[in-house]
Amino acid sequence: MAATQTSSDPLRLEHRLRDAGLFIRQALQTFRATGAVAPSSSTLANALTRYITERDDPSAPLSILEAGSGTGPVSRAIATHMRDGDTFDMVEPNEQFVTRLNGLLETDPDFTPVADRTTVHQALVTDLGTDRRFDVIVSGLPFANFTADEVRTIMEYYFTVLRPGGHLSFFGYLYTKQVKAVIAPRADYLRQAQSGWVVDEWVDRYGVGRERVFRNLPPAWIFHLRKPLD
Ligand SMILES: C[S@@+](CC[C@H](N)C(=O)[O-])C[C@H]1O[C@@H](n2cnc3c(N)ncnc32)[C@H](O)[C@@H]1O
Question: Ligand 1, atom 3: nearest CA belongs to which residue?
Answer without folding.
Answer: 140
